[in-house]
Design a protein that fits this description.
Largest sheet of chain B: 6 strands, mixed
Order of helices and strands of chain B: EEEEEEHEEEEEEH
Oligomer: heterodimer
Radius of gyration of chain A: 34 Å
Mean pLDDT of chain A: 76
CATH topology of chain B: OB fold (Dihydrolipoamide Acetyltransferase, E2P)
Low-confidence stretches of chain B: 1-16
Shape of chain B: globular
Distance between the termini of chain A: 61 Å
Largest sheet of chain A: 6 strands, mixed
Shape of chain A: flat
Mean pLDDT of chain B: 82
Largest interface: A-B, 27 and 22 residues
CATH superfamily of the largest domain in chain A: Histidine kinase-like ATPase, C-terminal domain
Radius of gyration of chain B: 15 Å
Strand order of the largest sheet of chain A: 14-18-19-17-16-15
CATH topology of the largest domain in chain A: Heat Shock Protein 90
Chain lengths: 687, 159
């Protein structure tokens, strides 16, 4: 069977299962007796094994198989969960992840057998008192659980309804034979459906086919693996029917036996339920969807999941671009209608309608691209647990707002920076147990990861109740490293000093650990987040802990912007960074340290003359009142002096391309309704 | 906006051993230059160019080409010639370069498309005296006229 087409699904699902397992095993450690958790783990491990087997990844299958044995023991209550076991299980998950990564890169699982892990798992099984025979015996009793182990009598799994049963019983009484058959098609077979059909035909000549599993329709549509089972009524001997089926080429084997109709009643149908529960899962996702008859039983064991379609992100990008084009076209219509005086009321109405449609369309396309940050943060509890052991500090991670959604591209990128910050909090932030005791803090340190939406931004906070940032220490270190001079250090505010932490090559940790402290962390965090048009700031109180606040824009491609003119040129400023717009008289401008500032309702705000920054002559005379746009970056404010306000507009951000990337204060360009290009000012770079 | 679509571009790998190349002949002042047609995406009329602050002088800004924002440079300024005088004949040639992406270059006039074989192109020797020679990687002879073949990658490289 050509499995390549399923590779992507396999990788995605394996990743999901692994994430799930990580989370569930963590929970298991907390509540070792929780039956739901154990069942969930067992199911996930079982599906993994089945999928790996289907795809032919034997090593992966072997490892999951042994893990499954352990889970099975836990489920049966013959084995107790302990910290050692959890550690080993986590290592197994890491090994599985490695397999998965290998497969993703090379479509091959690699050669690492992980014998050690398997041996350790088996040790656990032995020490559980029952020895290794137990799981084996269990498998023999429930062979359905081993989909790949050449279980050949699959026709036993066929579920019969009352009427079929009675027909079979009647046939037996009439002296006819009832046989069960299972046909295995060769893996290399290209047209499975055609082969199956030929077998079907051949058997039909000799016998009457009562039941077919999967259904004849499914077989025709190739909705089956490599085998299918039949129950037939015939007067001919079994061998003859088998021979007829085997004569069809590309058939691996055909097995069959007399079908014991009498045994059917209750026990049989129970076994069938069990079998069908494990079978669709193990057969991989493609098959499970195509077995509607089994789905109801599966649903009982699995939480209901939203129906989803996996879409290539590039296709979404194309869609997004089209929507952008539409918005530009709409903008040109709007500008055309205003220049013509807007005499036609119906025309304007239609334009307004178009406007609302495009806005809605844009929003829904954006939403398609949004994914909850859960996919990134779900691995953190596990990481903190590992860190806790490694650092020998007790700590607990509290997360909230995992459901907060962000653009897919942002979510993919945000994982590393968050990991850096969490590691920092665990390593540098939290004190050792002795120090915590001295300071009268609870023994277990707390790290919080909170995500929430704030207007057009998503805020992610990483907070700890550790020692906070030692400002003096940072200052001294910076002077020592030659990042600042001693005089500079004197005049710097506490905030500025803390910001030095983001300076490349800065690490205050006295000892360098493999967790953090190589001095590459925070500047990478900062540049990464800035490349996502976000910002990061720190709040800290010595002795009480620090908070790292990451702000990210909700969307990247289309924003609301204020259009302004400076010296006859049009510029856009993102509405998200604008605080207020002020009318300022020339006499209100004061000089402080030779820099222009204004005193706005009690706060002193530096003034930036955009005409100067943009190398252009302002159209306004110096004694006129000035329009000042107050922008904020974190908690810093600045006033941008512009010539004129044009109004608010939804703009599509276009990259200037790498050819003109030198200009820091311009973050991109946009196309206006009249086809002209306007540049987007990056208020963050100006401040 | 009138646009001249270039047609019949030969793929780089299908060039036979009898190598002939097509060049778009442009005028810059009194000199003629040839631009390899395989790199030309489009030729558009002069249009409003949005200035970008704080970039090199020869980078005139960006234009909107069917929804794409494309940087435009002045070939004259890049080659240390007097600044462009915009006339009716002024055109922007949109180049697609592997290394530098899409760039527009302003030229005084687009004359014609010529086909030159390798035999008609003379390699230039670098004497290092004149800086302009660096932007040229050959001189083509066509109907008793000389066409300097532009080395587009050097032209596009930032100074």
């Amino acid at each position: 069977m050509d499995v390549n087409q399923y590779l992507e699904i396999f990788l995605d699902e394996t990743k999901e299962h692994l994430e799930n397992l990580n989370a569930q095993i963590l929970r298991l450690e907390q509540e070792p007796e929780d039956v739901d958790t154990i069942n969930e783990i067992f199911r996930a491990a079982h599906s993994l094994k089945g999928m790996a087997g289907t795809m032919g990844y034997k090593r992966m299958q072997a490892l999951t198989h042994d893990m499954e044995n352990v889970f099975s023991e836990i489920r049966n209550g013959t084995m107790k969960v302990n910290s050692n076991l959890i550690d080993t299980l986590f290592q197994c998950l890491d090994a599985l992840e490695e397999y998965n990564n290998n497969i993703q890169e090379t479509a091959d699982e690699g050669t690492n057998d992980n014998q050690q892990l398997i041996a350790r798992l088996n040790d656990f099984l032995k020490t559980a008192g029952k020895g290794t025979e137990e799981p084996k015996a269990q498998e023999a009793a429930a062979p359905e659980e081993k989909p790949d182990d050449q279980k050949e009598e699959k026709w036993l799994d066929i579920k019969l309804d009352e009427s079929q049963l009675s027909v079979l019983l009647a046939a037996r009484e009439a002296g006819k034979n009832v046989y069960g058959l299972t046909v295995f098609i060769q893996e290399s077979c290209l047209l499975k459906a055609a082969r199956a059909f030929l077998v079907y035909k051949a058997v039909e000549e000799k016998a009457e086919i009562m039941v077919c599993n999967p259904s004849a329709q499914d077989i025709e549509d190739e909705k089956f693996d490599l085998d299918f089972s039949l129950i037939v009524i015939s007067e001919s001997p079994l061998e003859e029917i088998l021979q007829a089926a085997r004569n069809v080429s590309e058939i691996e084997t055909v097995t069959g036996a007399v079908y014991e109709v009498a045994q059917v009643p209750k026990a049989e149908s129970m076994a069938v339920v069990q079998a069908s529960e494990s079978k669709p899962e193990s057969a991989g996702s493609a098959q499970s969807q195509n077995a509607p008859a089994k789905n109801d039983k599966k649903a009982a064991g699995k939480p209901v999941v939203n129906r989803t379609v996996r879409v290539d992100i590039e296709k979404l990008d194309v869609l997004m671009n089209l929507v952008s084009e539409l918005i530009i076209a709409k903008n040109s219509l709007v500008s055309a209608s205003t220049t013509e005086g807007g005499s036609n009321a119906g025309f304007n109405e239609q334009i307004e309608y178009l406007e609302s449609v495009t806005t809605n369309l844009h929003e829904s396309v954006m939403k398609v691209r949004m994914v909850p940050i859960e996919s990134v943060v779900s691995k953190f509890p596990r990481m903190i647990r590992d860190l806790s052991k490694k650092l020998n500090k007790k700590m607990e991670l509290y997360m909230s707002g995992e459901e907060t959604e962000l653009d897919r591209t942002v979510v993919d990128e945000i994982g590393d920076p968050l990991m850096h910050l969490l590691r920092n909090a665990a390593d540098h932030g939290l004190e050792s147990a002795e120090v915590r005791a001295q300071r009268g803090k609870p023994e277990v340190g707390s790290i919080f990861l909170d995500a929430y939406q704030d207007g057009n931004n998503v805020v992610i906070e990483v907070r700890d109740d550790g020692s906070g940032i030692d400002v003096e220490g940072v200052k001294n270190k910076a002077i020592e490293r030659g990042i600042i001079t001693a005089e500079q250090g004197e005049s710097m505010s506490e905030k500025d000093i803390i910001n030095l932490l983001f300076h490349a090559g800065f690490s205050t940790s006295k000892k360098i650990t493999d967790i953090s402290g190589r001095g590459v962390g925070l500047d990478v965090v900062k540049s990464k987040i800035e490349s996502l048009s976000g910002e990061v700031e720190v709040k800290s109180k010595l002795g009480e802990g620090s908070t790292w606040i990451i702000r990210l824009p909700l969307t990247l491609a289309i924003i609301q912007a204020l259009m302004v003119t400076v010296g006859g040129e049009k510029y856009a400023i993102s509405l998200g960074s604008i605080q207020t717009i002020e009318d300022v008289g020339p006499d209100e401008i004061k000089l402080v340290q030779n820099r222009e500032v204004i005193n706005l309702r009690g706060s002193v705000i530096p003034i930036i003359r955009l005409s100067k920054e943009l190398d252009i002559e302002s159209c306004k005379s110096p004694d006129e009142n000035m329009v000042v746009v107050i922008v904020k970056k974190g908690e810093k404010l600045a006033g941008l002096v512009i010539d004129e306000l044009m109004g608010q507009q939804e703009i599509v951000i276009k990259s200037l391309g790498k050819y003109i990337s030198k200009c820091k204060i311009i973050s991109g360009a946009t196309i206006l309704g009249d086809g002209e290009v306007a540049l987007i000012l990056d208020a963050n770079a100006l401040i | 906006m009138e646009e001249l679509k270039t047609v019949g571009i030969k793929g780089i790998d299908e060039v036979s051993e009898y190598e002939t190349f097509q060049y778009i002949v442009i005028k810059l002042g009194s000199e003629q230059y040839g631009i390899d047609i395989r790199y030309v995406d489009n030729i558009v009329r002069m249009q409003h160019i949005t200035r970008v602050p704080k970039v090199a002088e020869y980078l005139k800004g960006v234009i909107n080409l069917r929804g794409e924002v494309i940087p435009v440079m002045s070939l004259r300024l890049k080659m240390d010639l007097p600044a462009d005088e915009i006339t009716k004949a002024t055109r922007i040639i949109i180049l697609k370069l592997e290394q530098h992406g899409t760039i527009g270059v302003i030229v005084d006039e687009v004359k014609e498309v010529v086909t030159l074989s390798t035999a008609e192109i003379e390699k230039v020797s670098y004497d290092g005296k004149e800086e302009r020679v660096n932007y040229i990687n050959g001189i083509g002879k066509h109907d008793n006229e000389l066409i300097s073949i532009l080395d587009l990658n050097t032209v596009a490289v930032e100074k």
